[in-house]
Amino acid sequence: MMAALRIITLPPTLTGADAVAFAKDGLRRGADVVEVRTDLHAPDAVDPEALSRVMPLLVSERDKPLPAAWVKAAWRVDRDVERAQDMDAPAGRLLASHHAEGPLTTAEALRRWSRPIPADALVKHVEPMDGPAHLDVLLETQRQLSARFGAERVTVLGMGPVALPARAVLSRRNGLEYVAMGGAWTAAPGQRLLDDVAREHRKAKDANAPRLGILGTSISHSRSPRIHRQPFDRIDLAEDAPVEAVVDSLLPHYVGFSVTSPFKMRLARHTGSVMEAINTLVRRGSRWAAFNTDTEGASAVLERLGSQSVSVLGDGGSTQALRLVAGEQGVALTVVRRAEVQSPLTGDWVWTWPDRVAPPETLRFEGARVAVIAYGAPGRRVAAEIVRRGGTPLLLGAAWFVAQARRQRQLWETAT
């Protein structure tokens, strides 16, 4: 099956020339279609002809009627099978859709599609997920809609805080994929990033290759999708998300995960690991096997510091890895939790707090070297905070990341 067409939705803040610039940027990054919705833009806020000259234009009727000028310029016209007064669209241009207000069984979903649909129309079914396990229902709905209308015409999408990996799995049999350009705005909860989807379609060697992914919070900066084999999904979840249920629901569809903050300890407990924290899951038949390749990263950082006595700020999953390897290298390790900080701090330190976690206001350094194990923009923000507080940052996040990722790759190759 051919790769799904990648659709970006025009944000409500962009009009006129800015809207055209958005479409051009999306085309450059791998988008195939730009969508304009009537609930997001007034009829005269955009120039449909100008947008259609950049790439095919999808115009979607949401609450307000579609302007005739939009329909004239459209590649496809999206009308809801239950809400639209009529399903009129120029021949070959209808996208028949249904946006359910709540989760449905497959039987309920199929009943929503009792209205006659033209043979040349595309079919899109969208519903919110009531939990990770709802993926199985959506897959069955996708299968049965494809049997009714033809697989090349059908798209099934989930929405909600745990919908992103479900969308990744569903995408393999979908004709359309609605993606986010990045930043604070997305057209629907659970959308994957355009850059990640374009990378997968560009680099995946096998359309049916088992999936990999990274699980964490605020991981838009992660380089894992860039260095590991495709398909590799960036699964960004809220800190209180049911990550245990997420990994259980995805066991048939993924061969492994990289696990980052704040889920390292929770998934160690969930998988029954003897370790306090893990950062790698590998599928072993009908279960997840857990590993901590952060020990490779911790070893690299302690070697770079070259000190016999090191203190650690924070006691999360990364600190567990530092504990495991410090003894092997003959390093005396002291762990200092947030409430135990007594400034000023001297000597050699490792800062393990994510950049989204505010350090104590009283924290100050005096002649201290501080290893930063975050990388990219978060690492630079942590380093700036260390400088502001009188310390000398050592940017060792890349060394940690590469060392642990190399071992992860080896483990995923053993998945069953």
Write the layout of secondary structure elements.
Elements: E1 5-9, H1 16-29, E2 33-37, H2 48-54, E3 57-60, H3 68-73, E4 76-80, E5 94-99, H4 106-111, E6 122-128, H5 134-149, E7 154-159, H6 164-170, E8 176-180, E9 192-193, H7 194-203, E10 211-216, H8 224-227, E11 232-236, H9 243-249, E12 254-259, H10 264-270, E13 280-284, E14 287-291, H11 294-305, E15 309-313, H12 317-326, E16 332-336, E17 348-351, E18 369-372, H13 376-388, E19 392-395, H14 397-412
Parallel strand pairs: 1-2, 1-8, 2-3, 3-4, 4-5, 5-6, 6-7, 8-9, 10-11, 10-12, 15-16, 15-17, 17-18, 18-19
Antiparallel strand pairs: 12-13, 13-14
Helix pairs in contact: 11-12, 11-14
Structure, described:
The protein is α/β, with parallel strands linked by helices. It folds into two domains: 5-203, TIM Barrel; 295-401, 3-Layer(aba) Sandwich (Rossmann fold), CATH 3.40.50. Helix content is 32%, strand content 23%. The protein has 14 helices and 19 strands. The chain has helices at 16-29, 48-54, 68-73, 106-111, 134-149, 164-170, 194-203, 224-227, 243-249, 264-270, 294-305, 317-326, 376-388, 397-412, and strands at residues 5-9, 33-37, 57-60, 76-80, 94-99, 122-128, 154-159, 176-180, 192-193, 211-216, 232-236, 254-259, 280-284, 287-291, 309-313, 332-336, 348-351, 369-372, 392-395. Strands 7-6-5-4-3-2-1-8-9 form a nine-stranded parallel beta sheet. Strand 13 (280-284) and strand 14 (287-291) form a beta hairpin. The mean pLDDT is 94.
